[in-house]
Amino acid sequence: MSTLKVDKIDPQTGSTITVPSGQTLDISSATLTPPAAMPASSGVNLTALNATQLTSGAVPVAQMPAGSVIQTSSVITGTTSTNDSSPTDHTFFDSVVTGSITPLIDDSSIIISSHFSVTLGDETNGDIGFTFRWKKVVGSTTTYPTSALIGGVNAAGYGTYYTNDHDWPEGFVWDKKFSSVDSDVDTTSAVTYTLQYATYQVDNTFRIGGNGWNNFQWNLYFQEIKR
Predict the structure, then answer these.
(1) Which end of the chain is more exposed for a tag (fewer CB within 10 A), N or C?
(2) Full-model pTM
(3) Which alpha helices (DSSP H) does 109-224 contain, by range?
């Protein structure tokens, strides 16, 4: 077998050197230096790859499917409460239960998970009631998202909890847990949610939030969901 020794092979025409069909180009004893930019090629013939050599990265938010949890906030807690000694019928007021989240995308929903207590003084009226809603503030804009209502009550009233012909004892405590969804979050600016309350014929102190004498903590956290 003859040996051809050359430093460079140039095609006679064009820019391609073709190995004839049925022939094998054996470069097993040589060093092959590929170009810095490899030409486009199918990977269909790549087999037996070692998965331990593959690295994974975070999936971009834009490629996550609808319904994915984008982020979960830290839990906000407090032991203080709002003490309203003379509540006004059918009027919403802010409570101490409040917190903020900054959405990562402008096409998401926010799940609001809350836990707080409600305490009444010694009530003597024949019927009383109270209800809640979320106040939403983005910058200087305040809204009351209907999708984040508690108990389905939009107007000030007493539709969430109501009773008649009952004498409420001093210090009666309700332990409340609510999950609400704000399905219209089209911003990447900070969003602040504040729990509001409204009462009906409550003639003594209405307390909402924490419970100072037994160290009960209200808490609140958020989850951002991709729409």
Answers:
(1) N
(2) 0.73
(3) none
